[in-house]
Automatic annotation (TrEMBL):
This is Rab-GAP TBC domain-containing protein. The lineage of its organism: Eukaryota, Fungi, Fungi incertae sedis, Mucoromycota, Mucoromycotina. Residues 100-151 are annotated as: Disordered. It comes from Circinella minor. GO terms for molecular function: GTPase activator activity; small GTPase binding. Residues 219-435 form the Rab-GAP TBC domain.
């Protein structure tokens, strides 16, 4: 067997990687909830700067051959086995990485891996009381000409209750109709269960506990979602503790004006925030007949600008970067005031995300992607073989597979513009109750759903486009996130 000769600098670099993993236990909390799961806010994180900065780009989407009718395993049932070993970066994983690096120094650079055979697996304040995600498809269906095809039953410009266009380019209208019809029953049932739980708690949202976690996994009612996110993210407590902070930040922003280094970039990104959403539209027809984008014409975009300016002053170590506009904009759809949206953004970025996620180094982002690739390598070797072009994981630690260009975007945006909007909202219901590890569960579930298709690709680069398209078809959020009975008891 041919051994590899390692230089002292390479060994030092690998030791630095081990130290980086040791310092990056940003998924472990010093506080635990009554049911034993880690819950945020987490303790402060310290990151080594030994990883090079990681940039993210997204290739354009096009139609893939994966159908939306694939069986969706719950990301909890599909990934519950990762709960303590894989969904969080545990000390055992650190030791495993150290052993792997040590072993890799004295073994060949090639690695034979077996192929896995297993394959399975949001609302404005004015409309949050809606009992269905999409418009009343049933009445439209009954009044439609039944001689039309399924796709012609609904105008492609129809929108959901959040203002987004229906994803008819990914899922046909008949499938959307069936989901909307069935999901109404789910929403009504959940509203009844939550009302019972609120009554038991004197009309207040309950404290963290196993019952709350179970209810959140099945969906928080739309009229309670904003309040629940505020409470369980810690944003409400911060807002109550600093009642004048947002006003003060806005005053500073007004005083700074264009001297704020982020003001111009924030303004340029306003019209790019959910451009297809009717509530964020700012297109204005000019006298000459042309269309101009004027953010000032839309009060919601004005609120978004103020939230982002306030955040840039409040968190100067981050300031502003792309993806924050989508986070803040999404929050504005669920809360009553822009102050609440600001504190949700502040709590999410500073308490839920790892450090250095949005700075120039993006070390936090690189660590997340390294951990995700480690999990895919361990749990789905067939997928790993394809996306890595049959390289060993230890060869890829400093040169991650190209699919991380896609998966990195998943984490930066918390799946906004990745998953259908209601599925995103359901994922966020779980994030604010259970913590950041939920992102890894969702990502792993998407890989699991795509496992058969990825393994069948001829070129590993094609996996990028496939992983861009598959999430857009996961319209049935309840099937994706439902909690099924476990055949064996898992430790929490």
């Amino acid at each position: 067997m041919m051994t590899m000769t390692r230089t002292s600098s390479e060994i030092a670099q690998e030791e630095s990687m081990c130290e980086l993993y040791n310092n990056s236990v940003h998924f472990l909390s010093t506080n635990t909830s009554p049911y034993g799961d880690e819950h945020l806010p987490y303790s402060s994180y310290e990151y080594s700067s030994s990883l090079s900065s990681f940039t993210c780009s997204s290739s354009s989407s096009s139609t893939a051959s994966v159908t939306s009718e694939s069986s969706s395993r719950s990301f909890f049932t599909a990934s519950e086995e990762y709960n303590n070993h894989t969904a969080v970066l545990s000390s055992s994983l650190v030791n495993h990485i150290k052993k792997g690096l040590k072993k890799h120094r004295t073994t060949t650079s090639s690695s034979t891996m077996t192929t896995s055979s297993s394959s399975s697996s949001s609302s404005s304040s004015s409309s949050r009381s809606s009992k269905h995600v999409y418009h009343d498809f049933e009445s439209e269906r009954n009044s439609s000409n039944h001689n039309n095809t399924n796709d012609s039953l609904f105008d492609l410009n129809k929108r959901d209750s959040y203002g987004f266009k229906l994803p008819t380019q990914w899922v046909n209208a008949e499938t959307l109709y069936r989901f909307d019809r069935d999901y109404r029953n789910v929403l009504e049932h959940q509203e009844h269960k939550w009302n019972q739980m609120l009554a038991e708690c004197g009309g207040e949202l309950p404290p963290l506990g196993s019952k709350l976690k179970r209810y959140a996994r099945k969906g928080i009612p739309t009229d309670l979602r904003g309040k629940a996110w505020l409470k369980y993210s810690g944003a409400k407590a911060k807002m109550n503790k600093q009642p004048n902070e947002y006003k003060t930040l806005l005053e500073k922003a007004m005083e700074m004006g264009k001297s704020n280094p982020h003001a111009e970039v924030i303004y340029r990104d306003l019209h790019r925030t959910f451009p297809d959403n009717s509530r964020f539209s700012c297109s204005v027809r000019q006298p000459d007949g042309s269309i101009a984008m004027i953010p000032e014409s839309n009060p919601l975009l004005c609120s978004l600008e103020r939230v982002l300016l306030a955040f840039s002053i409040h968190s100067p170590q981050i300031g502003y970067c792309q993806s924050l506009n989508f986070l803040a904009g999404f929050f504005l759809l669920f809360v009553d005031t822009e102050e609440e949206a600001f504190w949700l953004l502040e709590s999410t970025v500073n308490d839920f995300y790892p450090e250095k996620m949005f700075d120039n180094s993006m070390d936090g982002s690189t660590i997340d992607q390294t951990v995700l690739m480690q999990l895919v390598y361990e749990k789905m070797p067939g997928v790993w073989n394809k996306i890595s072009n049959k390289r060993c994981f230890w060869e890829c630690v400093q040169d991650l597979p190209p699919v991380t260009l896609v998966t990195n975007h998943w984490f930066l945006t918390l799946f906004i513009n990745i998953l259908p909007v209601e599925t995103v909202a359901r994922v966020w219901d779980c994030i604010f109750i259970e913590g950041y590890k939920v992102l890894f569960r969702v990502a792993l579930s998407i890989f699991k759903l795509s496992e058969h298709s990825i393994c069948g690709l001829e070129d590993h680069i094609d996996a990028l486009q496939l992983l861009q398209n598959v999430p857009k078809r996961l319209v049935d959020c309840h099937e994706f996130i439902q909690v099924k009975k476990k055949k064996k008891k898992h430790k929490y």
